[in-house]
Design brief:
The complex is a heterodimer of chains A (516) and B (467). Chain A is 74% helix and 1% strand. Chain A is built from 22 helices and 2 strands. Chain A has a two-stranded antiparallel sheet with strand order 1-2. Chain A is globular. Chain B is an alpha/beta fold. Chain B is 40% helix and 13% strand. In chain B, a hairpin with a 2-residue loop joins β1 and β2. In chain B, α7 crosses α9 and α15 packs parallel to α16. Chain B is globular. Classes of the chains: A mainly alpha (516), B alpha/beta (467).
Chain lengths: 516, 467
């Protein structure tokens, strides 16, 4: 690829030799997008059900707009035609390659790639050693480096053969020439070639692109992988789910557009309102408990006492442990008959009775099955998991505080507490904003903990005490086949989280904690 | 040279992804075209059960490669060991079913995960040709046209509905128009199960209460005897309890059934939770829990039972593999007789055929093969299932899979007119189940007055029968 600094000044020039076939290709891509729209709407060739059908049709309409722009501004060369054509070709190449590989079962073969690497690890070591030795510049003569290079080459050849290079390539070709694969592979190659052509200096001259436009094109290409991932796995599903929320859809048959009915139903849905109440109660208790002690803990861990690094790791451990495993352990601990929490309460009470001569009865709470306690148990678990992570964030914030502030305070006679209150806390405000915001978002999305803690009982818990919006969403989507309604729950929750976060950030900005 | 090396490495990756091999038999060896996915390893890693299918010959769109028909099938195993057995069975059927090449997909080893996987695949149009669903889901799948009516193929193959237990077959033959058993055939049951009481015989002996197995043998195993045993064991004191059941519709439903009640009216078109019989069953359960001789309602009883602190633990056959690991003397006994008998359930799930399969005839052949006696015996050997085919061979094999010694208790449960688990053809079962479960728990734990429950429960669950 030619870098932008090497490109010649951009001025529109005469038609290049590839102009006529290229215009033909632009016409073909326009026709392809129109065929795509028809195929989706008529359910011929591209059969997608429910709201996905309209989303696919919309995507093809967008592609058609790009194709029209690309063709129009190729006939009357403008930079916008280059951008449209390049974007369209790039997308066609990526999608066609994906479809072709999928039809060739290449993705299910990824397991085999892993296994092959596993079995050929020895040869990989030889290659790496050869590479290392061949890279030394001093203390060795040229013959050694040459030998190392040949060793590396030999290692690669043996690795390739042991991974089944020859039969694999034959298999690849045999799959490639299948009638349902080959035309798509050709399409991918053509689109890729066209995109490459649009990337050339000749295209720069033809379309009259200036330096700023070239840099923008470079930027587009750099962000393309991430943008594609974002579109495919985040923005795309998000838009689809918004569309689904306006429908009545069971995920299996055609959807019926119902407008805002799902959202209206939410307002009078006792279970949804109960889930909102639960999550608000949960948030009001759990968020302060997961944040405030973390500040104190961080200030302790920030001290120079021996063994602090060990304790930092210990407190961080719950954050990196798998939520399923951790919750299963807490489920055992919370067991009201054979769990360690109640056992500890029993032993402490016995000890107190022996010490004080009292006759206290040891309470044995039903941590998971009592309507009044079940949500509190989830709070304990959530706080335990979050506090370590928040502590590390506060610790990082504390280590960024200018030490001269403390020195000045000491000169003025401030003690540890005054320094903590008047320097540490105010200086940690940006960190606090971040910690509170992320903890709030996590709290409002609560799902795994109550789901696993209550299993095999319904995850909504005793008297719906642990019913959260996400659990309600799950029940509607995967137990009752109400995908449309579940999507409305998801968007209501999104608006709640977005609203809370927005308010919080706005307030923080007004207080001067955030500057942007 | 660098470019040459990179090219070789890239080609090697492509070759490996194609499963290419020189026939040397190393681990990169490509399976025979269309070979079944390797079974999960024995290390108990649950992730293994979700391994991607691994076939070398890509099926064409119509699921055929030459004369071979490619079929994908999926069933939910309860554990990695069961997934391995299903993998073995798939391999065996691969050899015995002519012209059919199978790919087995375990889905997931957790119930919720399986349901999500299946629904997502169905929505995306990528669901397997044959898959398993719980008995309660039959109506949802059949009424939405997601599964095939197999009657035409069954009739042509000499299949007889009478070879299977009548309860599940009533649901599997339900006519969509009438909601009553008819001439459809939505699938065949994979296996069945019933409830029994797992008995800690050491605790029973220590408490000096009558042995439930002996009481059952003499026909004296009723609710009174049961209560006597439960309170007797709990009298040992400390953390020892007499009885425990899980908090879902099956365990408490058995009590309603035993009193002559149930969830629905006879044609399953309306709620019957407020009938006097249902209320009598629920009241008996509430009274039992009020004694304090039980594991608190809502607490999971299996951990304390396995810890040796519970006398009787009510659960299905699926709990057996886990209980086999305990180090005390145990066995199983049938549920006690209530006013209307033992009141057991017949739990089941079925293999069904995807309505979009390109090879319905071959799919039926697979369903039929998967429900043969020898296959069912092979699966039930692990201990978690009871064969769904009424076959002496399969049942005799099941009786030999000990412990527990008294496997007959499960088979007795099947013979004692159990209530068959089933869907709501005229309503929404998951919604009904959720609404009912919350309120039943409130009654059993004393948070709701049973008279108020009787007055209102059917209006509270009415939304499940609407639309």
């Amino acid at each position: 690829m030619t870098t932008t600094t090497e490109r010649p000044p951009a001025t529109a020039s005469a038609r290049p030799p590839w102009y006529v076939p290229f215009v033909g290709w632009r016409v073909i891509t326009l026709l392809l997008t129109l065929v795509g729209i028809a195929a989706v709407l008529m359910r011929r060739g591209i059969v997608v059900s429910g709201p996905l059908r309209w989303t696919a049709a919309l995507a093809f309409v967008g592609a058609t707009a790009l194709a029209v722009a690309a063709l129009g501004y190729t006939l009357r060369p403008r930079h916008v035609g280059r951008v449209g054509g390049f974007s369209l070709d790039f997308l066609i190449a990526v999608v066609a390659a994906f479809v072709a590989f999928n039809r060739m079962d290449m993705f299910t073969g990824l397991d085999a790639v892993g296994e092959a690497f596993n079995d050929s690890a020895g040869w990989l070591l030889v290659i790496v050693l050869g590479w290392l030795v061949s890279g030394f510049r001093s203390g060795q003569n040229a013959a050694v480096r040459t030998a190392a290079r040949w060793t590396m080459l030999l290692g690669v050849v043996i690795l390739a053969l042991s991974m089944g290079l020859v039969p694999g390539v034959v298999e690849f070709i045999s799959r490639l020439i299948q009638p349902e694969v080959f035309p798509i592979a050709v399409l991918a190659v053509l689109a890729g070639t066209s995109a490459r052509l649009l990337w050339s200096d000749a295209a720069t001259r033809f379309y009259g692109s200036d330096q700023r436009q070239l840099e923008a094109l470079d930027g587009m290409l750099f962000v393309a992988p991430n943008a594609l991932g974002f579109l495919a796995f985040f923005a795309g599903p998000l838009i689809v789910s918004l569309f689904i929320s306006f429908t009545e859809w069971d995920g299996l048959t055609d959807a019926t557009f119902v407008g805002l009915r799902n959202y209206a139903d939410l307002l009078s849905d006792d279970l949804f309102l109960r889930s909102l109440r639960n999550i608000v109660v949960f948030g009001v208790i759990a968020i302060p408990l997961a944040v405030a002690p973390a500040v104190l803990l961080a200030s302790v861990l920030n001290s120079k006492l021996p063994g602090m690094k060990f304790f930092r790791a210990v407190y961080f451990l719950p954050s990196i442990a798998g939520v399923v495993g951790v919750t299963l352990i807490w489920k055992q601990l919370f067991d009201s008959t054979v769990g360690y929490v109640n056992f500890a309460i029993l032993k402490v009470t016995e000890w107190l009775n022996a010490l004080l001569g009292s006759g206290l009865d040891a309470p044995q709470p039903q941590w998971i099955s009592d309507t009044n306690i079940a949500l509190f148990s989830v709070i304990i678990l959530f706080v335990w998991q979050q506090i370590g992570f928040n502590t590390v964030l506060f610790l990082a914030g504390m280590q960024g505080i200018d030490g001269t502030l403390y020195e000045a305070a000491e000169l003025d006679g401030a003690g540890p507490w005054k320094k903590f209150v008047n320097i540490t806390i105010p200086m940690l405000r940006p960190t606090t904003v971040f910690v509170v915001a992320t903890t709030t978002i996590l709290a409002l999305q609560l799902f795994n903990e109550p789901f696993i803690l209550q299993s095999p009982s319904p995850p909504s818990g005793p008297g719906n005490a642990t019913l959260t919006p996400v659990i309600y969403l799950y029940q509607n989507a995967f137990q009752e086949f109400e995908i449309g309604y579940a999507s409305a729950v998801a968007w209501a929750l999104f608006l709640l989280i977005f609203g809370v976060t927005l308010l919080y950030f706005r307030r923080s900005r007004e207080d001067g904690v955030l500057t942007t | 040279m660098k470019r040459l090396l990179m090219l070789l490495l890239a080609l090697s990756l492509v070759a490996a992804a194609c499963g290419g091999d020189d026939g040397g038999g190393d681990a990169t060896a490509a399976p025979e075209p269309g070979a079944t996915t390797a079974a999960p390893s024995d290390d108990g890693d649950a992730d293994d059960t979700t391994a991607a299918p691994d076939t070398t010959t890509p099926p064409s769109d119509d699921g055929q490669t030459g004369d071979e028909v490619n079929l994908r099938w999926m069933t939910r195993p309860d554990n990695p060991e069961e997934a391995a057995v299903y993998g073995e069975i798939s391999d065996q059927l691969n050899d015995s079913l002519e012209g059919i090449t199978l790919t087995y997909e375990p889905g997931s080893n957790e119930g919720e995960g399986y349901q999500q996987t299946l629904l997502t695949n169905l929505s995306a149009g990528t669901a397997p040709d044959v898959f398993w669903i719980p008995g309660t889901d039959i109506a949802d799948f059949a009424s939405r046209g997601v599964i095939l009516d197999l009657r035409e193929f069954a009739d042509a193959s000499g299949h007889s509905d009478d070879d299977f237990y009548p309860g599940p077959m009533a649901h599997l033959t339900t006519d969509l128009e009438t909601g009553q058993p008819g001439n459809a055939l939505w699938g065949l049951p994979r296996d069945v199960s019933t409830f029994a009481l797992y008995v800690n015989k050491d605790l029973i002996a220590e408490a000096g209460v009558p042995d439930p197995l002996e009481l059952e043998a003499t026909g004296e195993w009723d609710w009174d005897a049961f209560n006597e045993v439960v309170t007797g064991v709990a009298d040992l004191g400390g953390e020892i309890k007499g009885y425990g059941q899980s908090n879902w519709w099956g365990p408490f439903g058995a009590w309603l059934n035993a009193a002559g009640g149930g969830f629905f009216n006879e044609d399953r078109t309306a709620c019957a939770l407020d009938s006097d019989e249902s209320i009598a069953g629920l009241a008996a359960l509430r009274d039992l829990y009020a004694t304090g001789a039980t594991i608190p309602y809502g607490e999971e009883p299996e951990p304390p039972f396995r810890a040796g602190t519970v006398g009787l633990f009510q659960n299905g056959r699926w709990a057996t593999p886990g209980i086999r690991t305990v180090d005390f003397d145990w066995d199983v006994v049938g549920l006690p007789q209530g006013p209307d008998g033992p009141g057991n359930w017949l739990f089941w799930g079925a293999y069904v055929v995807n309505a979009t399969t390109e090879n319905p005839e071959a799919a039926w052949e697979l369903v039929s093969a998967l429900t043969q006696a020898d296959v069912q015996a092979q699966i039930s050997e692990l201990g978690a299932n009871i064969p769904s085919r009424v076959s002496d061979d399969a049942l005799q094999a099941f009786l030999g899979f000990t412990p527990p010694e008294n496997n007959q208790a499960f088979l007795d449960g099947l013979q004692q007119n159990p209530t068959t688990e089933g869907p709501l053809w005229a309503g929404n079962w998951p919604e009904f189940s959720n609404l009912m479960g919350t309120e039943v728990q409130a009654v059993v734990t004393g948070e709701r007055d049973i008279a108020d429950y009787q007055t209102n429960i059917c209006s509270e669950t009415a939304p499940a029968f609407e639309g």
